[in-house]
Amino acid sequence: MQQRVYTPHSNIRKPWLMIREMIVDIRRGNDLAKRLTIRDIKALYRQSFLGILWAFILPLANTLVWVFLNNSGIVAMGETDIPYPIYVFSGTMIWAIFMESMQAPIEKTTQNKSILAKVNFPREALVVAGIYQGLFNAGVKLIILVIALAIMGYFGGWSLLLFPLGIVSLVLGGTAIGLLLTPLGMLYTDISKAIPLVMQFLMYTTPVVYAVPKEGFSSQIVRHNPITPLIMTARDWLTGVEPEFLNGYLWMNLVIIIMLIIVFVAYRLAMPILIERMNA
C-alpha cells in the first residue's frame, strides 16, 4: 500500500512538481470518478417517474413563458437571426448545461464529506466525476435539442458538428467557476444556496432569452460578459448562424484552461485543511 507523509515543507514552492502529482492523482482517481458518476446518475433517475424528460420539461416551460411575454408585447426581446422560440429554447438548454456544471464540484464534494474524512483517495476524483456527469447531462440535452429542432423543421447544417466543442467549453468553464467556490461552499452552506439566485441575475446579463442589444449601456454589459461568447458561439454552431463572438470564444477557452489549472491547485491545497477542520 502506498504511504504518503505530509510535512510542513509543502510542494507549493515547487509548483511544477505539484502539478505533476496532481495529474498523477487525476489518473489514479479516474476509475473512482467513473463509478461515482454512474452511481449518482442512477440515483438521480431511479425514483423519478419522468426521469430524463425533466431535462426537456423545464427548458420547455421557460421557453413557453418567454415566447408568451415576447408575443404579447409585455417584454421586447429584440430581433434574432433565428425564430425566437428556437432562440430561447436553445438558450435555456445551453444555460442549464453551464449552470449544472458550475454546481457540480460543490455538490460532489459536499455529498461525499463523510468519506472525505474517513477514506484516503485522490480528491480530484470528485471534480472529475462532476465533469463526467456534466458531460452526460449535456449529451442528453444535445440529443433533445437536435430532435426538437428537427421537429420544428430547423436544421443548423454542418456547423452542428462543432456544437459538442461548445458544450465542452461550457462544462469546463462552469467547472472552473464551481471549483473556485467549492472550498467556501464546504465551509458555508450559504454559498450553494446563493448560487441559483446569483445565476438567475447573471442570466439576464447574458443573451440567453433575448438578442444582444445593438447599442447603449446594456449592450456594453452583455458584450463584456465573459459568458456571452460561450453561450452565443455554442448556439450559433447549433443553429447554423455565423458566429459573432468566435474570437471571444477562443480567448475564453484559453482563460478557462489557465483558470482550471489554478483552481485545481488551489483545491488540492485547500482540501487537507478543510478535511482537518471537518474532523475537528
Give an overview of the whole structure.
The chain is mainly alpha-helical and 280 residues long. It has one domain (37-279). It contains eleven helices and no strands. Helix 4 packs antiparallel against helix 8 and helix 7 packs parallel to helix 11 (246-279). The longest helix has 34 residues, at 246-279. The radius of gyration is 20 Å and the shape is globular. The two termini are 27 Å apart.
Core attributes:
11 helices; 280 residues; mainly alpha
Strand content: under 5%
Q: Write down the overall geometry.
A: globular
Give the CA-CA distance, first to last residue. Answer: 27 Å
Structural class: mainly alpha
Count of distinct strands: 0
Largest sheet: none
Number of separate structural domains: 1
Q: How large, in whole angstroms, is the Cα Rg?
A: 20 Å
Stretches with pLDDT under 50, minimum 5 residues: 6-10
Helical coverage, percent range: over 70%
SS summary, helix count: 11
What are the secondary-structure elements, in order, as H or E?
HHHHHHHHHHH
Arithmetic mean of pLDDT: 79
